[in-house]
Amino acid sequence: MADVATAATPDVPNGQEHKYHFNIVMSCGGCSGAVDRVLKKLEGVKSYTVSLETQTATVIAEDSLPYEKVLKTIAKTGKKVTKGEADGEERSVEVPKDE
Prior knowledge:
By secondary structure, the chain is of the alpha+beta class. Helix content is about 20%, strand content about 35%. Strands 1-3-4-2-5-6 form a six-stranded antiparallel sheet, covered by helices on one side. Strand 5 (about 80-85) and strand 6 (about 90) form a beta hairpin. About 25% of the residues are buried. Mean pLDDT is about 90; it is low at about 5-15. Keywords: Chaperone, Copper, Copper transport, Ion transport, Metal-binding, Transport. InterPro entries: Copper_transport_ATOX1-like, Heavy-metal-associated_CS, HMA_dom, HMA_dom_sf. Belongs to the ATX1 family. Pfam families: HMA.
């Protein structure tokens, strides 16, 4: 059975959300669990899926949650993000610096 974590919150009207997809280097259940925990706590996440098997995380976020904040949150787990997409368009995986 695949190690997949999912969560969901109530829906908001269409057109007011983003879909972010990340390829993440995860070698064990603890790795995917760490990503799961930070996404669960991130305000603005409507739903998400973390898969150890495919080494990916997909996030459905409210319009107010930017890609860069999700990327930075995942990076704080110490896991390397190798590819990222926002609404189907490839985006940088360079983690933004704190100002």
